[in-house]
Specification:
The structure is a single chain. By secondary structure, the protein is an alpha+beta fold. It has two domains: 206 residues, PUA domain-like; 158 residues, 3-Layer(aba) Sandwich (Trna Endonuclease, Chain: A, domain 1). The protein contains twelve helices and 16 strands. The strands form three sheets. Strands 2, 3, 4, 5, 6, 7, 8, 9 and 10 form a nine-stranded mixed beta sheet that branches. It has a five-stranded mixed beta sheet with strand order 12-13-14-15-16. It has a two-stranded antiparallel sheet with strand order 1-11. Helix 7 runs parallel beside helix 12.
Length: 388
């Protein structure tokens, strides 16, 4: 029996964060996107039109693939998506659904002339909810991001599977600032008419000028809860346990590991130097973070503290006070922990305006995933480069 909403999908508008429910028969016919947009009922990368001249592109993701960690940053309106060359044996662009070829072409046009940019089709982003075949609409997207140039918004990354190396794309999209995508515009787009009276203003602006109007959703609370700082799935929990088990008997050994994690997450770090163990048992690092490019760049000093704690043991006021006390004017601090910062401590940091970057357990997991380090064997191999 079909779900009631499943029978009217072809007539309704798209609303950001709305869930579109599929059927309940337990087969491919339950898939809602084929009814909602009249596209194929399979694949994470789907399009209407031809691969040479796509009219509408639909990207879907589970947001839970550990090897290919698609994700959405709702605070800044940035969606990260990995292409469809996900196993060895094919050249980067030679994929079954031509997804990577379409990515290459649309990003080339996005960085081309104004006339080329107008050929970029609207991109609709959906996420699987995990409930039957229901999907959630994440928004209308444009290729690229305001702070990324053509060398950084679409990059080919290397991965290895079964001992064989291959490349896939990592693409950055901007979720544009509109809540509703009207059915009238969708039907016009399918006919190749991207700019009409029904076109969202944010798409018109990007298409005509290249200006991104991102859909940003700032947090209502500046501090993160315990749950937000700890891994949300079993694989992430296992990753943190492997790191903790390796260094729990020798906290000093965690210091170079923490420094590397900071470099991976804060990619503008220029250099980082480990310092000798201190009397209270802690061990720190100091470094410089680069702002700007070339001769105009400036280097900002920072101090790093690493805490290899069991996930059940929070980082409290005492540990953060030590880091804060070491900061001088125009410096910032970085805390890397396999655990989390207690609620009271996190609140005090934010309320008092201390410039501290918190890299908690969940951040470590996300950072490693983005680097292609997610399975147990991959984590153990990475950890083997550090002395226990």
């Amino acid at each position: 029996m079909n779900h009631p909403q499943h029978t009217v999908l072809q007539n309704i508008d798209l609303l950001v964060d709305r869930i579109y429910e599929g059927g309940r028969k337990g087969n491919a016919g339950d898939e809602p996107l084929s009814k909602l947009l009249k596209i194929s009922n399979q694949g994470g990368f789907r399009y209407i039109g031809s691969k040479e001249r796509p009219l509408l592109i639909v990207l879907t993701s589970t947001l839970k693939n550990h090897d290919w960690p698609d994700n959405i940053d709702k605070e800044n309106g940035i969606f990260t998506y990995y292409g469809d060359n996900r196993k060895p044996g094919n050249e980067l662009h030679n994929t079954h659904r031509f997804g990577n070829q379409l990515l290459r072409d649309m990003f080339d046009r996005a960085h081309g002339s104004a006339e080329q940019r107008k050929l970029v089709p609207p991109i609709l982003i959906f996420a699987n909810t995990g409930n039957w075949r229901d999907v959630e609409f994440l928004g209308l997207a444009a290729p690229g991001a305001p702070n990324l140039d053509a060398n950084h918004d679409l990059i080919a990354v290397w991965r290895m599977k079964d001992g064989k190396r291959f490349q896939n794309y990592q693409a950055k999209f901007t979720i544009l600032n509109t809540q509703t995508i009207s059915r009238k515009w969708i039907e016009s787009v399918k006919q190749g008419l991207f700019i009409t009276e029904d076109t969202p203003a944010c798409w018109r602006s990007w298409s005509e000028t290249g200006n991104y109007q991102a859909l940003k959703a700032p947090r209502t609370l500046e501090h993160r809860s315990r749950e937000e700082q700890l891994p949300s799935d079993n694989l992430g929990t296992k990753t943190i346990k492997l790191i903790y088990d390796r260094f729990s008997e020798n906290p000093y050994g965690f210091e170079p590991c923490a420094a590397k994690i900071a470099e991976m997450m804060l990619q503008r770090i220029d250099n980082i130097d480990l310092t000798r163990p201190s009397r209270d048992g802690g061990r720190d690092a100091v470094g410089k973070y680069k702002i700007g490019e070339g001769d105009s760049a400036v280097l900002v000093d920072f101090a790093l503290e690493a805490k290899c704690y069991a996930p059940s043991n929070s980082v409290g006021v005492k540990e953060l006070s030590r880091l804060i006390s070491r900061l001088r004017h125009r410096q910032f601090g970085v805390l890397v922990t396999t655990s989390y910062v207690s609620t009271q401590t996190y609140q005090e940091i934010k309320m008092d305006g201390h410039p501290i970057v918190i890299i908690a357990a969940a951040d470590i997991v996300r950072t490693l995933k983005s680097a292609g380090i997610s399975t147990e064997n991959q984590v153990l191999s990475w950890l083997s480069s550090f002395n226990p």
